[in-house]
Amino acid sequence: MEDLRQRVEAELKSDILPFWLKYAIDEEYGGFRGQIANDLTIDSKAAKGLILNARILWTFSKAFTFYRDPVYLATARRAYEYLSQCFWDGEFGGVYWMVDCEGRPLDTKKRIYGQAFTVYALAECSHATGDPEALGNAMRLVEKIESSGHDEEHGGYFETFERDWTPAVDQRLSDVDMDEKKSMNTHLHLLEAYATLLRCGEDTTVRFRLRELIEIFLKYIIDPATRHFILFFDEEWRPRSEKISFGHDIEGSWLLCEAAEVLGDPEVLKRVREVAVKMAQAVYEQGLDRDGGLLYEADTNGIADTDKHWWPQAEAVVGFLNANELSGQQHFMDAAERSWGFIEKYIVDHEHGEWFWLVSQAGVPDAGQDKVGPWKCPYHNSRTCFEVMERLDAGKSARLGATASKDRRSGVKR
């Protein structure tokens, strides 16, 4: 475990964070570059996405919390200022989905997924810096999400709104998603946002909605027969999809545990932990390839996409480590280690830096995919590093504490 921790930290500090500091900062137009190809070719005119900028804010806020390096703080502040100046809608509230290279509104839709990631980033920024303005802006977004996005009749949240918060005709988050009123993905990231925000300070609305989100996952989103997430629903929570996303399953298994821990209800936490281990086992049995990589998708006929994208590999490390902590079962720890070994061998780009978007089942990188873009951000991979280090450090402290206690009882001196 100590070896794993050292390898993870080396990747974070020697590759991931330095890559974004070196290549992503846009000195010409401000903020961060919207698109960089795998070979580091920069499109200086590329549009800039909300998710990219919010995830950069989260990453460097977390990095500053962890290391207290002023460079990380300066980068987090740069991201915060750019989000505040360019993405914030001062007239209707909320944040835009996309701005052009100079920071002018380009896609003004209000997607709850994007609002959630901004809350998540602002909460982490507030935690890292103690900035009350960041926390206040997070709460302003929560008020807008709750007043305009929440389904008061059936629970949960609708997907997409126009700039003025009227419901959008097209509800899709992206071109590959279904045009349905509700999705697992939006609710998962709202769950993590509200959990992070509640850690910053008690709020009745946030606590109430966090509990509701956990119950929605337990009641509707987790298929009790398969232990996989159902991905899309209509307004009344009737399933509309049959695909299985192994990356979301393993990611959700640990995010649900985190949310339940923050909520602090022992009965809810017990239920969530039980289902989290079952979800991790289903991914282990059905989605984990023999080389330690996680396959992308399945459907009713079996594996439907054998590519191995960067973000499911990252989430597999944390999800399997979490399942090991909950169950004590060694095969989960072995799976976490093998997943990280796969990342080091196939996903890390040892020539240009950062991680490939995806590799084939045989481990061949897709060089045509971006290294930086609206969806390619330093979030899944950096968060995995932070989570692994924190979990292994906590485990080491617990083991040392148990050893010291045993020594005291037996009279052993060390």
Q: How many beta-strand runs?
A: 12
Averaged pLDDT: 95
Helix content: 55-70%
Globular, elongated, flat, extended or rod-shaped: what is the shape?
A: globular
Q: Could you say how many structural domains there are in total?
A: 1
Q: Work out the strand percent.
A: 5-15%
What is the CA-CA span between the terminal residues?
Answer: 22 Å
CATH class value: Mainly Alpha
Summarize it:
This protein is mainly alpha-helical and 414 residues long.
Mind explaining what this structure looks like?
The protein has 414 residues and is mainly alpha-helical. The protein has a single domain (2-392), classed as Glycosyltransferase (Alpha/alpha barrel). Helices cover 57% and strands 7% of the residues. It is built from 12 helices and 12 strands. It has helices at residues 2-24, 50-67, 70-87, 112-129, 132-149, 184-200, 204-221, 246-263, 266-286, 310-327, 330-347, 380-410; strands at 48-49, 98-99, 105-107, 110-111, 160-161, 182-183, 232-233, 244-245, 297-299, 302-305, 308-309, 358-359. A 3-stranded antiparallel beta sheet has the order 1-2-3. Strand 9 and strand 10 form a beta hairpin. The two termini are 22 Å apart.
